[in-house]
Write a structure and sequence with these properties.
Radius of gyration: 14 Å
Distance between the termini: 35 Å
Helix content: 25-40%
CATH architecture: 3-Layer(aba) Sandwich
Number of helices: 4
CATH class: Alpha Beta
Strand order of the largest sheet: 1-3-2-4-5
Largest sheet: 5 strands, mixed
CATH superfamily: Glutaredoxin
């Protein structure tokens, strides 16, 4: 029958802030994908839907931490990473930015780029 008590990993990106960044991202030992966005940015709304979809993929779950940073609410993080435009994706491992993508990216490319990053840094 149904297992109502089955444990499920979160399939939604974490809201990353200036305050929780060190605990949730900087001190994390697995690969990280950060999506920098702004509420006024229309392409960001498209990107967040793609990132949400990616977070639900079985090949991605539990292998990478995915977070979303609102640059208006968290200016220190935007400044620290020198975010010049949104949306911007950062691929981070061992406290270093390993890859960066500015602007929208088609979902197949996002998934492929993420899976390659996971394989390279897991």
């Amino acid at each position: 029958m149904f297992n109502l008590f089955k444990s499920k990993a979160s399939t939604k990106p974490l809201e990353i802030t200036d305050a929780n960044f060190n605990d949730l991202i900087f001190n994390y030992d697995k690969p990280v994908l950060l999506d920098f966005k702004a509420s006024w940015c229309q392409p960001c709304h498209v990107m967040i839907s793609l990132v949400n979809r990616l977070a639900k993929e079985d090949e991605v779950k539990d292998r990478i931490r995915i977070g979303v940073v609102d640059i208006d609410m968290n200016p220190a993080l935007a400044q620290h990473f020198a975010i010049q435009s949104v949306p911007t994706l950062l691929f981070i491992h061992d406290k270093k930015v390993r890859d960066k993508h500015n602007g929208l990216i088609p979902y197949p490319m996002l998934k492929e780029k993420t899976l390659t990053f996971i394989e390279d840094f897991s």
